[in-house]
Amino acid sequence: MALFNTHAKENYLVAENPQERYGVENIHADDPQEIKKLMLSIVKTIMDSSNRLISEVEDKDFEEKRRLTRKAAISALRQMGLNGNTQLKVRIIDELERYLWGYYVLDELVNDPDISDIRVLAWNYVRYKKHGKRYTGSQCFIDENDYVQFVHLLAVRNKKSLSDVNAITYFTDTTNEKFILRFNICTPLVSSGSMPVLTIRKIPKEKYTLEGLMEKGMFDGRMAAYLVEKARNATGILFTGKGASGKTTLLNTLLEYIDEEESGVVIQESDELFISMKTDEKGEKVPSRDIAFLHTVSYGGEGRIEYSMPELTRNGLRMDLDYYIIGEIKGNEAEGFSMASYTGHKCWATVHGMSSFEGINKLADYVKQATGYEFDDCLRKLIGMEVVIFMKEFKICEITEIYGYDTKEKNLVKKVVFQNGRWLC
User: N or C: which end of the chain has fewer CB within 10 A?
Assistant: First the structure.
């Protein structure tokens, strides 16, 4: 796969004479666009004969890669005639490192703790979500070619190929100090227009505490006590709402309230859910809970190894478990989940839905698709889902509790206990 797009009208990486093209003696350290252009020319200069960057070499550690990259960049700057102006050289090398190991023009958004999602729809159109509201960012790439090249580099850095057989690519980057970053890339093969669509979901590595979620306005003290009690004792909890409503965040926090004497498994597409660590008697870091974490493996058309959600959920049924947790249900993994729930496990999951009632119905739909059972039979298998929590814009908006199954009505016996900030019981 070619790392760079060489067919755009203007390719900043193939300047025959960078010094003549840019006139480096006229570039100032406070000119961000020109610094980006000069940095991209350096990228071309320091690529090796196999069209690879030092940042991609696997047999060197990060600090060695960084040292070699800086050395090569300084040499390239000398070739361009930039021997003085230390401030400018520092800015260019900083920009180079953001490009190779950071997120280039998206760095500020990626590292903002209050931003949860980033969407890039064009080289000059970046959107982000902050405190549940969407905004248009001031950040932009140099042009379309600059954006396409960055997306390709991002994929290569995470060992993904944006070929036609892999036009929809998703991966998780855990190298950021503060966030787990979930990426989704759709190339122009499946997206309208000539540019890829890039989305980034951010999950804090330091998970929220209950107190932290209360400060964010997700719930109050009474609700916090309710959630802890249900995390420890409820036969099942379903978190529902649309994307970025806070479902995964709340589930992740409540993992810390599972009794240390009980065992569990968490099955997910990417490593978003995790447990905190503690120090044992020998001073070693060990997990604070008896919970195993499994994630899917997808080859994307480039290999033969694949472990899907349904396969992992079936495997989970073979384990000695008290808790059976699926990060998000959206397909045939619902079969294993319903079997675990119906056989006495404490089951948690997230699913998209527009209310607590519709969330449990959506889960039953997935069970029906996976098993072929009648819808009422699928609902009956979910009798163990004791609590359904509906979330919207990072707040708990509604809670329904399930008490049993009505054989005459062929429906779950359920009751709304919390709605729009008020307890109804």
Answer: C
Question: Which residue, 393, 134, 383, is CA-closest to 247?
Answer: 393
C-alpha to C-alpha distance for 12 and 142, rounded to whole angstroms: 9
H or E, element range at 201: strand 197-204
Distances 96 to 3, 90, 100, 120 between C-alpha atoms, Å: 16, 10, 6, 21
Which residue bears the tokens 């390709």?
Answer: 152
CA gap 6, 29 in Å, rounded:
28
Query: Letter for the amino acid at 392?
Result: K
Angle at 301 between CA 298 and CA 304, to 5 degrees: 65
Q: Which of 171, 169, 178, 176 is nearest to 206 (CA)?
A: 178
Residue 207 CB coordination number (10 Å): 17
Pairing of strands 236-241, 133-136: unpaired
Residue with tokens 């908006």: 397
213 by DSSP, 3-state: which?
Answer: helix
Q: What angle do CA 34, 40, 44 make, to 5 degrees?
A: 145
3-state secondary structure 122-190: ECCEEEEEECCEEEECCCCCCCHHHHHHHHHHHHHHCCCCCCHHHCEEEEEECCCCCEEEEEEEECCCC
Helix, strand, coil percentages for the chain (3-state, nearest 5): 35, 25, 40
Nearest CA to 322 among 268, 275, 262? 262
Tell me how far apart the alpha carbons of residues 203 and 129 are, in angstroms, rounded to a whole number.
13
Q: d(Cα 296, Cα 307) in Å, to the nearest integer?
A: 5
Query: What are the structure tokens assigned to 412, written together?
Result: 């779950």
What does the pLDDT look like over 92-116, one tens digit per residue?
Answer: 888 787 888 889 989 999 999 889 8
Give CA–CA dist 326/197, Å, rounded: 28
Q: Is the pTM of this model over 0.90?
A: no
Give the whole-angstrom CA distance, residue 93 versus residue 43.
Answer: 11
Cα 282 from Cα 274, distance rounded (Å): 23
Say how many residues make up the chain. 425
* pLDDT tens-digit series, residues 31-90: 677 777 777 777 777 765 445 565 555 556 767 777 777 777 777 777 776 666 577 777
Gyration radius of the chain over CA positions: 25
12 Cβ contact list (under 8 Å, min separation 6)? 37, 40, 41, 142, 145, 146
